[in-house]
Amino acid sequence: MLHALQVFTTVIVGVMVGVEFCVAVFVNAIMNALPGDNGQLGRSHGGRLLGAVMPYWYFTSLGLAAVWAVATWGEKGSALVVTAGGLLVVSVLMSVLLLVPINNRGKTWTPENRPDDWEQQTKRWDRYHYLRVAVIVAAFALLVGALV
Fold it and tell me: Is the pTM of this model over 0.90?
C-alpha cells in the first residue's frame, strides 16, 4: 500500500509539473505570438480554466507528500520527501501571495477593460511562474529520488 501511495504521489506531482512547465515554456509563448488581442484573450481564458483546477492539484500534491513523509518518517529517503513537501509548501505560498492576485485580475481582462499596465503585470506573472516551476521541478526530482 505504501508503494502505491509513493507512485501515485509521484505521478500526480509529475503531471502537475508537466502542465506548469508546458504553460511556462510553450503555451505562453504561443499566446504571446498570436496577433492582435488574441493572446491576451487566450491568457484570460487560460487563467479562468487553470485557475479553477490548479489550487486543488497543488493542495492534493502537498497532502499526498505529507502523508508519504509521515508514513516513512525516519526511513531511507524520508528526508527527500520532507524536503519535497517543503518545496511544495513554498510553491503554494508563491501561488497564493504572488501569482493568484495577478491571475485573478487577468482572468477578467478584455481588450475593453484591461489596465494600461496589463503587459507589465503579465510579464511579472511569467517571472514568478518560471520560479514556481523551478521549485516544483525540484520537488518532483526529490520525490523521484526518494523512490529509488
Answer: yes
